[in-house]
Fold:
Amino acid sequence: MAKILCNMNVIKLLLFRVKYRYCAMRFGVVLASLISAHLLSGCATSARPVVYQPPSRTVSAISTNLPAPNAVPHNVYHEVGPSETLWRICSIYSVDMKTVMQVNHLTDPTQIKKGQKLLIPNTYGPRPNIPLYPTTRWTHIVIHHTATDEGSAYSIDNLHQQRGWENGMGYDFLIDNGTRGKASGQIEVGPRWIKQRDGAHTKQGDWNKKAIGIAVVGNYSETGLPDRMFDSLTFLVSTLKKFYNIPDRNIVGHRDVPGAATECPGKFFPWTELKRRIKIY
Structure:
């Protein structure tokens, strides 16, 4: 009798695998997690069902359907930014990690270092990959411009360290303007965001503790924000706004922070259009 019951449970498990295989393939859900979450008592001696317990600290990566910089696959060289991992780099360019390791003669994915140039073969270009951490600390977003002609997370991280900021780049996110080997509109994630540390992008009050700092490379007191950068900024702000339930009134420019004496992110920054877009995104 016990043998018959055990065989029936095996059959149930196989049917469950077939039933959910399509769901798992389509939505990117790990099949093992689905099986663990399903309350099936197997042939084990314990009668207690196996229940999936999610990790206490989860990170969600969000990709977007924003247009890639190039419509034709090509090779690019990627300069490793602060706190970047090979997995994140490969996910940004939608390239297999084993392939990147082979063409760069890497035997260990942890071998990469900040500032290293990696060949990324046969890519359509970088796509956003935004890590999201479940926390209630982020209640505001502050937008800056770098007021420089060029920049990347690597170069700005070095600059801020030279100024004595031991945790590096003061912004949480940087949107590139097509200089320093980066694509226009490419979103770089700073080391402070990865480690969920306080920012260093405002001097006023507790804003570095509660506000996500986003900087766009360039000086927008002199010119308008390019379309590709504006599209990426809209996507990033909308993603953070929705995930952290940040009200529109708490999405401000650096100049709007009480006590800040600056026109950052610039007098030509398109605030009206940004506010309109994030409402309908």
